[in-house]
Amino acid sequence: MRLVRVLLLVVAPTFLSSILQAQAPPPHLDDPIIEQRITHLLGQMTLEEKVAQTVHLADSSTGPGSAHSDYREQIAQGHVGSFENITGAPETNALQKLAVEKSRLHIPLLFALDVIHGYRTIFPVPLGMASSWDPGLVEQASRIAAKEATSEGIRWTFSPMVDIARDARWGRMVEGAGEDPYLGSAMAVAYVRGYQGARLDDPQSMLACVKHFVGYGAAEAGRDYNSVDISEHTLRQIYLPPFHAAVKAGGGSVMSAFNSLNGVPATSNRFILTHILREEWGFPGVVISDYGSVAETIAHGIALDGKIAARKAILAGLDVDLEGNVYSRYLAELVRSGAVPESAVDQAARRMLRIKFALGLFDHPYTAAPAASGKPRLDPANVEFARAVAEHSFVLLKNEDSGGSPPLPLSRDVRTIALIGPLADSASDMLGPWRARGDAADVVTLRTALTSRLQQSGGKVIYAKGTEILTAEGNLFAEAVAAAKQADVVIMALGEDALWMSAEAASRAHLGLPGNQQQLLEAVAATGKPVVLIVFSGRPLILTWAASHVPAILQAWFPGMQAGPALVRTLFGDVSPSAKLTVSIPRSVGQEPLYYNELNTGRPADGIDLSRPPRNDVEKYHSRYVDEPNAPLFPFGYGLSYTKFTYSPLELSASQVSASGLNQKTAHPLHVSTTVRNAGPRPGEEVVELYLRIRGTSVAFPVKQLEGFRKLTLAPGESKRVEFTLGRDELAFWNIDMQLLVEPANTTVWIGPSSAEGESADFVIAQ
Ligand code: BGC
Asked: Is the CB of 504 inside a 6 Å radius of any atom of ligand 1?
């Protein structure tokens, strides 16, 4: 192949600063005409009708014998504001008709659902999508989800989850973008843009709900719902940025978290719900509780009964009670007794009405019902796109070139492949948790796709399940080993159960391959056949043994409905893996919480050999383990490709920049650039990552912090120059006076392929 040598320049401000600077006011959430209509409507509403706007029902309170089993009647009387878990155009339209035609003031309902990574077309789980480092892809996937969901009357999704997750024991890591606030902010904005589109009143737009506010991912010991203690500094520096970015991008609703934050449940935490969200950020949208969490403040121990729970939450700034059933029961009474001012209910109702007006529901309450009921049809173009997104979510962790050629991509002439493992043919697990109206019957598994590929080339696949995902029962090792022995290459599909081990209430104290999959892996590897391990999971697993015994490892997350075709195209090199980790993969559970942007401590273990236990005091008295290295097995930002990229030394536009000048916006920012070259034989995409370390500041800054990234596509031999801007947005941080400012400091900047590698340069931030 002729090598093309071209030099292109990719200049742009860092992704986040460019989108945040381009902020318009949130569409329709500051419209004076809408405000007038709300004022007029509120003037006609009884107290009960206002309270109704704060009442959100879910299916669990509407079944026979439950609190709202007469929900149809309640809707007709105007006692319900919003509803979740109803799908299907005929169904949503029928309930809407009750609200619009029967209730006194004809106020429409708002239908919600957890549309997390697709509605009918199921994309990879959010952690997988984030691994693409491609916000454009995520925005497009979210737009598709919005179009499909709104066709069935769903105008509100409880997504994106933007919780920073630094602890892989926490099962909900799968629902977010990982451990980093900068990348997390970029992804948060992408989801909001995709769901909400250019205009909220576009019938194909869906209101985003940014969740879970805030600190949910910092649950102690990674145990879901557990308490959270975070300093205000860490809250502002790490946990709040993705929420702020989503709100600035116009995200119209926020969900409070289940956890307590510094002793006060997030659901009734005035500091976050009112001080930060409303007073500092000017958020005009609606805040909804998490499922039942208003009533759960009784269990937290800050409310003695439902009435107190309702009072504390509404006074803290919580607008809508999701399924707690305490606003519906007590709010009117609390107002009448003087315990809650009516203005608090007016305000909550106003915010919900603002959303409904902004969505255009008063003018167009119904969705165009399809001729026949049943699930919406799958659009082949969307399915094709789901495949492309999946291909961009696979992280190649290892591809050992031991003398000959690396195992991947597979040779097109391969004759016999043994496909082994309980996830090779499990359609349901490929969908991951939260699958909305996705259907396992539409999933193409790895087994199906691989078999059809090998049939075309005259080869064959010998499939052996080997074992179950979760249990040691059904030990079919002998069959698996026999399959491996007959094959040229073995592909093992191992990992987690998508529903039981991933997402809510799925914390794990052990992070190895579940059941007896590790033993299966070892038994198969003992055949000496080359093994390609594909890991399906919603979090990093402990792959320490595999990393030293298996030549190729591909982290596939839960890839969605096109899992099989996307994997097969990747395995055979039709596309090269291009994703990178957005979470650190630990060597052992004891390292958790584990994240790259840690503080240095007073006793960093720099220069100490951590691969063996300390042998003397000099080696021991450092911030280290005596029985495990500090470093992750695979670091944040890491991921291999089938080609190879090189980075040239960095060029800085100046060696100094002025802190006060940047703070006052009078100084020019710095520019830093590098040239990235595809030095390998194949086309590929490379995520170029920029990290900073700032020293000499009033509050310690992490050893590295991501402050920019760009994704490049490079032909073999092609080079592109990438330039990043380093200005106030990148250099400011929350200082000791809790101000977001640039401080005089010494700074190192790295640009490279991961958080652990890269070219570096130093500059000074002068007074
Ligand atoms: C989850 C939320 C979800 C809500 C509504 C809760 O259990 O924590 O993330 O949006 O249910 O279904």
From this structure: yes
